[in-house]
Amino acid sequence: MKASPAREEKAQVIMRTQVPLEAISPLIGCHHENPFALLGPHQVEDNGRKALAVRAFLPEAKQAWVVDAAHGEARPMRRIHPAGLYEAIHSTEDSGLSQLDGASYAIQVIDKNGERTTMHDPYAFEPLLGDIDLHLLGEGKHWSSYERLGAHLRTIDGVTGVNFAVWAPNAQGVSVVGDFNGWNAKLNQMRKHIPSGVWELFVPGLTDGTLYKFSVKQQSGRVVEKCDPYAFAAEVPPKTANVVTNLDSYEWSDSEWMGGREKLNGFDAPISIYELHLGSWRRDPADPDRWLSYREIAPQLVEYCQQMGFTHVELMPVSEHPFTGSWGYQTVGYFAATSRYGSPQDLMFLIDALHQGGIGVVIDWVPAHFPKDDHGLRMFDGSALYEHSDPRQGEHPDWGTMIFNYGRNEVSNFLISNALFWLDKYHIDGLRVDAVASMLYLDYSREDGEWIPNRFGGRENLEAIDFLKRFNEETHLQYPGVLTIAEESTAWTGVSRPTYVGGLGFSLKWNMGWMNDTLRYFHHESIHRKYHHDELTFSLIYAFTENFCLPFSHDEVVHGKGSMLDQMPGDMWQKFANLRLLYGYMWTHPGKKLLFMGGEFGQWHEWNYNESLQWHLLQWESHEGLQKYVSHLNHLYRNEPALHEVDFENGGFEWVDCHNHEDSVLAYLRKAKDPKDYLLVCSNFTPVPRQGYKLGVPEAVWFEEISNSDSTYFGGSDVGNDGGIQAVPMESHGRPASLEISLPPLSTVVLKPRR
């Protein structure tokens, strides 16, 4: 009786190869932990003779050959399994050949459409990751993990390609898929390093610009195409594929800035930060729906910051995010600059241009949470890998996002190496860390029963605290002079104190208390402000407990709060006068400064990420005057050491009069390191001009009026002191001399002694 075709095929498999059938099944099902054990070159015995077997899994192939790279000879491969497993056995005794490597042969294929291709065998190349890499990753101390994981252009023995590596310890199988293999998960299955759980594969022939993802077969059997957590670039959303990118191709020209950065970012340096969202700062008037590119923005932003006197810019998150409406705060690609505005090299060009223009660059960094998008980090290998499995620990109730598991070594390593990556590859000068309060407290925005206490029964997130300390230690150790800035809204102590004295180790902390109290005060009509005087003076009780930055950020001009100008009370004139007064008070108050875009010229509309700022308002003198005043404040702040040298110690500030709530007037001294270098600041928080207002001063000298927010140049009413005032040796406010000043309505006046 004649055998059936299926039985005949099975008999041929057993006769023609030493590969057992049970070893082929995981490969066909894309859940083989080590496809190298089956594929690529292997030493075998053929009829008692030593031989080399080359195997390839080519499910789309009709015919295949092994091609000798040196001689061009082709040896046909036999199809040893109907699913598409091919093999060629080469006698080593006849040829003297004992082994093959990836450079010595290629595989030629004719597919079902008759197209012929020749490629090097991915399963003939050694892995990039070594034992030290895998050990450090498991230990959570591989700070340059971005040089190993992800997708990296690599040349091995003259063969170029891309090395892929991804951490997915609980996956059944992982494959690289992309436009190069028709997104077929069977073709480029990866090898799992045990016990680290990192999967790796070198794919020859791939180049810069290749689109790819990881096809992950989860324990449940579900197959999900995931973005590379370490990818350097991605497609423009809503597309989600990653892009192979060589970050080292950009040639930097900012050596002068980088060499002097430590001094420029010093605690005694002027730091005035302009916060902006790249997609809505400016747009092309001829095409207002189009984002400007990084390269288009560069010359405009440099010129504007120089004109306005800002020392730094803070870019809202530039890492890749699927939902534009998250403003970048729901990140999927932590190592990928968003492609909305161009390539990674284009962002480098922008940063380089800013540095050459003398402007530092801070970026928002978001280690507190990540979105639930299926192509992102959530349930990456089918398990709670980057996040906690228990929603009481792993989900943000307010934002609908996932919380990182900071206690897992690989996760904290991922985040810290990401922070260092931006400082290394993009020359970033500072990281503003978003939502630190949500990281510190286990019960953040949760009711009783909705959170799990720490091992001591407390509400502090001990793993997150340890993570933040290590982040700050490594950042400051490896990149001296770089700023780390905490957005932290609670009374947690020591946020900006070194870790060796029990602090978290940040350089600066946003003074959210000052911001909230000050805005609350300014929302009051001026006639009621005398009842709220303490909302201004309270900040000086704690002003030197941290290294504070005074922020009016994007959060203050969204969600129905209105623009900064619109929040000011009174008629049109008073709104502008109040805002100039507010900025004058802010720029002379101890602490570094941050202002969100649009606030500097009086944007009327609440910020909308889908529209350009209202630059056309500058045709009006009131808006232009406000812009001139902010520019004046920045240049005054930079030129006067008394306003920036001693920001974080009480020696840089001294009250002259903080008790006059009836008149709603504040007066104080700001002092430089040199005690003879000081300024007198006086603010009138009512629209009532006050003539002959007496203030005590340290000495009977001429005091020049170097700043007056009521100047007509800034849109004011021009009440002032005719250039200055002579102090007389008459005691007042506990001081040996005094002067009588004219206080303009709703204004800040700054005087400097001239001896």
Task: Please write out the topology.
Elements: H1 5-16, H2 21-28, E1 40-46, E2 49-57, E3 61-68, E4 74-76, E5 78-81, E6 85-91, H3 92-95, E7 105-111, E8 116-120, H4 131-139, E9 150-156, E10 159-167, E11 173-178, E12 191-193, E13 198-204, E14 211-217, E15 223-226, E16 242-243, H5 255-264, E17 272-276, E18 283-284, E19 287-291, H6 294-308, E20 312-315, E21 319-320, E22 333-337, H7 344-356, E23 360-365, H8 391-394, E24 395-396, E25 401-402, H9 409-425, E26 430-433, H10 436-440, H11 462-478, E27 483-486, E28 508-510, H12 512-523, H13 534-537, H14 539-542, E29 548-552, H15 564-567, H16 572-588, E30 592-596, H17 621-639, E31 653-657, E32 665-671, E33 678-684, E34 690-697, E35 702-708, E36 724-726, E37 737-743, E38 747-754
Parallel strand pairs: 17-20, 17-30, 20-23, 23-26, 26-27, 27-28, 28-29, 29-30
Antiparallel strand pairs: 1-2, 2-6, 3-4, 3-7, 5-6, 7-8, 9-10, 10-13, 11-14, 12-13, 14-15, 14-16, 18-19, 21-22, 24-25, 31-32, 32-33, 33-38, 34-37, 35-36, 35-38
Helix pairs in contact: 6-7, 9-11, 16-17
